[in-house]
Amino acid sequence: MADVTSHTVACDISDAIATQVAAAYRGEGDVASICLGGSGSRAAFGLGDQATLSLSGHTGVEDYQPDELTLRARTGTPIAEIEALLNANNQWFAAEIPSPSSSSTLGGAIACGWDGPGRAFGSALRDIVLGCQLVNGRGEIVRFGGQVMKNVAGFDLARLQVGALGTLGAMLDVTLRLQPQPECTKSVAFDVAPEGLDAWWQRTRSLRPLLSGSCYFEGRLHLRFSGRELAVSDVLQQLGGEVSPLDWRALMDLNSAFFHGERLACAYLPRYSSLPLNSGKALVEWEGARVWVRDGDHLALARDVAALGGFVRVMRGPAVSLQGVTSAWHRALKSALDPKGVFNPVHFDRCFTGEGFA
Questions:
Q1: Is the pLDDT of residue 152 over 50?
Q2: How far apart are CA 221 and CA 209, in angstroms?
Q3: Residues 207 and 111 in one domain
Q4: Which pLDDT band, with edges at 50, 70 and 90, does 154 fall under?
Q5: Structural domain includes residue 310
């Protein structure tokens, strides 16, 4: 096992968490529901409800196996500290994990389920979750999944925690798949008119597996390549273009100036889609499959996106009703893991049933 020392003091408060949840389940005291939270670093993106149970004090890397490319850490551990540990072994997460601040925790990243700009060219955050331990709605500590990639028996309840916003349980620890860092990463940019994007999306198909990110903003198409230095250099020589000044880390962490508008929405679409935009500014990722819209008309955006077979998630500003929500499925899953609706009821109604909208 590798050295797992960090600046954060390892602290296991799982028993205290389970005790508080069990009390809420039994109806003891005045608390019938629990709003889970972490460091609060994602509050500016529509996740600002006041937490009544913070998991930020549940910290520490429990197990790190560089040779096996796996790591298990408690959910209150800052992502930045885990990344520093991985960098020392020339490794990183097998999927990009956005962290809006240095205090952003692993549990918050799993609960939100956000993916970085490399999602379309590699793994999603959900894909790299091998297992987790959580407190269910009865106050019981349970474990799903395993420690190795071959452990796939039974239902994959661990990966269901990704993007669940803490509505299915209080996660205690998560086991993730890792990968070696690439030998080389370089980016180039091209001037491309909006009507020329379709042709570029067809062209990018032939640039895999070296292509690791795409971003189109204000008439400039930025492409990121990762892999062996010789292979990357060969592709860039054939493509041409200019060296891209884009800060991919700031883009991944939603720290670019673009994300600071009063209104912010994210549209998820079929790949290679062309989204008409009547208001606001757009930033296009994932070869057209994800479009960020700043200061736009959310209702009009939701209609246009739905017509293309996609959906909109509002991060800041006026909310929109959810399209295609399978509320019966969500309710059945919620009932199995949290029968009395103890965890994050506001998030559940707003994000998974559509009932949180006026």
A1: no
A2: 18
A3: no
A4: low
A5: yes
Query: What is the C-alpha to C-alpha distance for residues 120 and 302, in angstroms, rounded to an integer?
Result: 22
Name the residue type at position 355: E
Report how far residue 234's alpha carbon sits from residue 219's, in angstroms, rounded to the nearest whole number.
Answer: 25
**Which range marks the domain in which residue 273 is found?**
249-320
For residues 319 and 142, the answer to whether their CB atoms sit within 8 Å is: no
- Do the bridges between strand 36-37 and strand 53-54 make them parallel or antiparallel, or are there none, so unpaired? parallel
Q: Which tokens go with 3?
A: 């050295």
Instruction: List, in order, residues 6 or more apart from 255 with CB less than 8 Å away.
Output: 100, 249
Tokens 């903003």, located at residue:
217
- Could you tell me the end-to-end alpha-carbon distance of the chain, in angstroms, rounded to an integer? 52
- The verdict on 226 and 257 lying in the same domain is no
The three-state secondary structure class of 3 is coil
Q: Is the pTM of this model over 0.85?
A: yes
Both tokens assigned to 31 = 């608390």
User: Is residue 356's pLDDT more than 60?
Assistant: no
Calculate the alpha carbon distances from 65 to 87, 92, 99 in Å: 14, 12, 23
What residues pair up with 71 in beta bridges, in sequence order? 64, 176
- What is the chain's mean pLDDT, rounded? 89
